[in-house]
């Protein structure tokens, strides 16, 4: 049975249980105290005392085909006893208004992590508009390099992937490596989470891609 089916069945049972509770509560009293408020008579004075109680948030816990309602603290204790990982899979369920957690083995957790990574990768690929090419010569000055990188930064901001080719001096790849390091440092200083990937060295040349980043909030962007 899939996780979606389990949650759907659980929501139906929860709804029926809630309706029964409401019906019983109405028959007992039309003025039931709100949740989190305790009312009782003081035996000495005979006056009605109202005491606020701490409401412990509940979560929906999925373990295999079983679904239960518990507290996060109890779920954490259970995960430790069973040597399982407690993973939040839904921030707030639309029906129950509770977060949903699942107990997973190490293997299940690893599989879920890979699944989420692939999902994020696919979403990022969908957002990429195309490719731009940046050709750099090993004799480029720092000033000109900064100008070229600012141009690349605009492309990245518009969700273009940038392919970079650094033409090094013949037989001296160290010059190209220095430029590569300068590019990496540039994006760190700009606080841009751009990723330099698929670096290849051929002779004295270096080729790589810069993927569109997740931008941090900056006033100048």
TrEMBL record:
GO terms for molecular function: ribosome binding; translation initiation factor activity. Signal peptide: none annotated. InterPro entries: T_IF-3_C_sf, Translation_initiation_fac_3. GO terms for biological process: mitochondrial translational initiation; ribosome disassembly. Keywords: Initiation factor, Protein biosynthesis. The keyword Protein biosynthesis applies. GO terms for cellular component: mitochondrion. It comes from the Eukaryota. Belongs to the IF-3 family. This is Translation initiation factor IF-3, mitochondrial-like Protein. It comes from Tribolium castaneum (Red flour beetle).
């Amino acid at each position: 049975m899939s996780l979606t089916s389990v949650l759907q069945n659980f929501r139906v049972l929860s709804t029926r249980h809630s309706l029964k509770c409401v019906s019983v509560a109405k028959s007992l009293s039309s003025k039931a105290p709100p949740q989190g408020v305790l009312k009782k008579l003081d035996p000495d004075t005979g006056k009605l005392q109202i005491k606020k109680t701490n409401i412990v948030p509940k979560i929906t816990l999925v373990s295999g085909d079983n679904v239960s309602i518990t507290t996060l603290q109890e779920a954490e204790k259970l995960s430790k006893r069973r040597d399982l990982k407690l993973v939040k899979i839904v921030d707030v369920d639309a029906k129950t208004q509770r977060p949903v957690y699942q107990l997973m083995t190490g293997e299940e957790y690893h599989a879920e992590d890979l699944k989420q990574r692939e999902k994020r990768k696919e979403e990022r690929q969908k957002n990429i508009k195309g490719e731009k090419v940046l050709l750099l010569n090993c004799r480029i000055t720092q000033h000109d390099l900064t100008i070229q990188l600012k141009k690349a930064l605009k492309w990245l901001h518009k969700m273009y992937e940038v392919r970079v080719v650094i033409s090094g001096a013949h037989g001296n790849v160290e010059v190209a490596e220095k430029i590569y390091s300068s590019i990496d440092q540039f994006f760190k200083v700009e606080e841009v989470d751009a990723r330099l990937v698929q670096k290849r060295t051929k002779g004295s040349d270096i080729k790589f891609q810069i993927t569109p980043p997740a931008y941090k909030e900056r006033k100048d962007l």
